[in-house]
Specification:
Helix content of chain A: over 70%
Oligomer: heterodimer
Largest interface: A-B, 36 and 28 residues
Structural class of chain A: mainly alpha
Number of helices of chain A: 7
Order of helices and strands of chain A: HHHHHHH
Largest sheet of chain B: none
Helix content of chain B: over 70%
Strand content of chain A: under 5%
Order of helices and strands of chain B: HH
Largest sheet of chain A: none
Radius of gyration of chain A: 20 Å
Number of strands of chain B: 0
Radius of gyration of chain B: 29 Å
Structural class of chain B: mainly alpha
Number of domains of chain A: 1
Shape of chain B: rod-shaped
Strand content of chain B: under 5%
Number of strands of chain A: 0
Distance between the termini of chain B: 95 Å
Number of domains of chain B: 1
Chain lengths: 224, 69
């Protein structure tokens, strides 16, 4: 049943993506930036999905520390890994946009730097998990680290409000706006990216279950 | 008025605008490709990891069954 849900959600996400790429290709070019502006249809949804992933990791980590249920630890690691991939996509597409509009691949402004720090923190979370053998200790340390890492997420989100950055001001909550037909495609793409994140997380979660089964079998093999 | 402005354009201006448009589309396609490559590579990593886990579980099952005999 879970497999069917994963395939169904994945298929829905792909259909929405294909439809949106087709529709976005038909939109006129943005007046000052030209065609490169259309990268926003992937850059921002990836950021939204990555933020959703880090928030889910935060909640799962807190729940693990409260209940000591390893399902929450599995959810935290799965969603963090997916978020890391999405944030990498966000950083790279942003860098490509910056190269065309600013003339440089990277600028050390508050938004870009805090986003990179966020990526490094969650990469550190994944490395920390690999470094600890004992499962309970690994899950506890990782949960505490995940809560600590989340502190950077509001800094990433609000950095463009708190400081003067080279990164553009927010389009939707900073006085800017999208034409209605652009908004529809954009929000559908956000939904598709979220769905895709859920699909990848569910697939990764299944691997965590398999890994736990494998660990239990290894313990049994040692006991014989 | 529009025709007056168009008349002031030189062939260099037109060539520059065409180059700008091409560069814009070129980098937009890079962005799209990178976004999809990241997703595809991650999915392939997941598939590879799943196959490895299944293989390890199967071999351990066989080992445990042999030990129980």
């Amino acid at each position: 049943m879970r497999d069917k849900i994963v395939y169904l959600l994945g298929a829905a996400a792909i259909v929405i993506f294909v439809r949106d790429i087709y529709l976005a290709a038909g939109l006129p070019e943005e007046a000052s930036q030209g065609a490169i502006f259309k990268i926003i249809f992937f850059h921002v949804p990836m950021a939204f999905a990555a933020i959703g992933a880090s928030f889910t990791a935060l909640v799962a980590s807190i729940l693990f520390l409260v209940t000591r249920n390893f399902q929450y630890d599995a959810l935290a690691v799965s969603v963090t890994e997916v978020g890391l991939a999405l944030l990498a996509g966000n950083l790279i597409t942003g860098s490509i946009w910056g190269h065309v509009i600013w003339g440089v691949w990277w600028a050390w402004d508050a938004r870009l730097t805090s986003a990179l720090v966020c990526w490094l923190l969650y990469a550190g979370y994944m490395m920390l998990r690999r470094a600890i053998e004992e499962p309970t200790q690994r899950a506890t340390f990782a949960a505490v680290f995940s809560i600590f890492a989340f502190i950077d997420v509001p800094i990433v989100v609000f950095s463009i409000k708190w400081w003067r950055t080279q990164h553009p001001q927010p389009v939707f909550w900073g006085g800017g706006s999208f034409p209605p037909d652009w908004s529809v495609i954009f929000w559908w793409n956000v939904l598709a990216m979220m769905l895709f994140g859920v699909v990848l997380t569910m697939a990764r979660l299944r691997q965590e279950d398999a890994q736990r089964e494998l660990d239990a079998m290894r313990r049994m093999a040692h006991a014989f | 008025m529009r025709y007056l402005l168009l008349a002031q354009l030189t062939s260099d201006d037109v060539a520059r605008e065409i180059a700008r448009l091409q560069r814009n589309y070129q980098f937009l396609s890079y962005g799209m490709i990178v976004a999809w490559v990241i997703v595809v590579v991650y999915v392939l990593l997941l598939v590879g990891r799943e196959k490895k886990l299944k293989r390890e579980i199967a071999s351990l099952k066989v080992m445990l069954e042999e030990k129980q005999k």
